[in-house]
Amino acid sequence: MKSIFVLLFLLCSVVASFAAKPSVLFSYCSFDNPSGKPYLEVYLNTAGKSVTAVKKQDGKYQRTIQVQLLVKKEKAVIYLDKYNLNSPLSSDSVLASDFVDVQRIVLENGTYTLEVKISDNNAATTEPFIVQHEILVNYHPDHLSISGIELLESYGPPGKEARFVKNGIEMIPYPDNYFPPGATSIRFYAEVYHSALAFGADSSYILRYRVEGNESGKTIANLGGIKKVKVAEVNVLLAEIPFDQLKSGNYTLVVEAVNRNNVVMASKNIFFQRSHQVLVAFAPENMSTINTEGTFVERITVADSLKEYIRCLFPTSTNNERSISADQVKAGDLKSMQRYFLYFWVTRDRFDPEGAWKEYKSRVDLVNANYQTWNRKGYETDRGRVYLEYGVPNEIETNYYEQSSYPHEFWHYYVLGEQRNKVFVFYCKNFSTNDFELIHSDANGEITQYRWQELLRNPQTGNDFGNTK
Fold this sequence. Notes:
Helices cover about 15% and strands about 40% of the residues. The chain is of the alpha+beta class. The radius of gyration is 26 Å and the shape is globular.
């Protein structure tokens, strides 16, 4: 299944933060098909209330989203599909059903980039939800293997929606790795392939599943089970683990194929979070309802300090968050800023928002000390923004004294989320300042300038840098 953004094919969920764009839960799983090619299942759940309702001729209301799925291998487009999803008709403009969807994409073994884009068809000014992930598909007919683990909202007899049916079972996906208060169990589905190769023809083996602490790796007592199965090309595991008493925290669901000697022959796992806390409603229109009493932000009582704290969030904020934070700082109301500040950090870390802020603040202090200019704080500079958004680069190459070029730096990241080997190029046209401008990067979403070498050239030297090899 996916990774956040933790590759053992963990479940991935991405939640859009604001109602100004569709609010989406997204995940995926890969599966094998012994009689054909492997395939990818993409699971989507778009919150109906985050999509614009339109009144139809019959007086009822409907919402419509456009979904675009794009799969690339290197720069080649392998798969592209664009389609519309309509909500059920409703007599009320407020009530809204979620858009739940499953799509299957046949792919050969390999590494791909999956891009999902979801737009509100009836809101021209709304930003689309866009996310990219690196996908690995790796199944072989001569190896025992386990599919990704699909988390489920529910399962049962086949219904009218054929796209939710697999192996004669209707399965509604749960495209999230967070289980809130009220969740009483974790339901999941997985497949095991070519078991006869590992256990012998006409034999049986054990499918074992359990929950363990994500940090400790220790099995949680009474949270798991076993299933004895006879070898086949495909063995199915559909199970449910009640976890009413499971404490808040991070956990791993593990599925294993085990032989008679209790030796694990194949395994797959997936990360999930469990919480008993009632969390903040993550929507700007509900900001006034956020209670900051007893939280760490209650101790921030100087408005000017809080304004500065909110400003330094800019490098890691979404466009919508930047707009809202600018309004908060402009208004300058302490209580309102406290609510927004708590809102921001709870969306980053449900369990320890204060710890997340302290860790980020230490990085802000570092960039302020190293990248500050005469008129800008370190977090306002390009180097400060990249450092705060992506972390410490693996390599920094500096060249401040080459006569034929302006002072410049190359920052190299071996791993950048789902990306690999990404470079950022900064230069400084004013030799007497510390203000380095980002002029090129091959990272997704960053400025790309393919003639960046010419920008580095110092015109006062007279060297024709653009024509050199």
